[in-house]
Design brief:
CATH topology of one domain: Arc Repressor Mutant, subunit A
CATH class of one domain: Mainly Alpha
Largest sheet: 2 strands, antiparallel
Distance between the termini: 28 Å
Order of helices and strands: HHHHEEH
Amino acid sequence: MRFTRITIIKTRQRPARHDINELLQWLGGSLGLFNPRDKDKSCYRVFLALIKDLKASKQGLTSDEVAAATKLSRGTAIHHLNRLMEAGIVLNERGRYALRVDTLEGLVAEIRTGVDQAFDGMQDVAKYLDDRLEL
């Protein structure tokens, strides 16, 4: 069985549309990507580096390139890349990390599809259990 950890957090009202940085942080925070204990916003910086690569080249980045772009250690960059992969947001192909889709809107749509499928499966099992337990 393969698991993808998806965390959706209902946060405060979204920031003003003109502040791209705040909107990106809000989106990532709503997806449960950014931990409040991450004081230097290192996961956000990794996420932003992947977005910039998507816009510039769409070739993906090595962990060394992510570390250099974010001014983080390679170990810290890899830690956050692994978390983003666990969330199903980032793919690693041939040692290069990239967002799994070409747009943020597409990313949210794919996450929604995955969440809907997970809930459909849970609902089927819950119905089966209700029947078996005569609830």
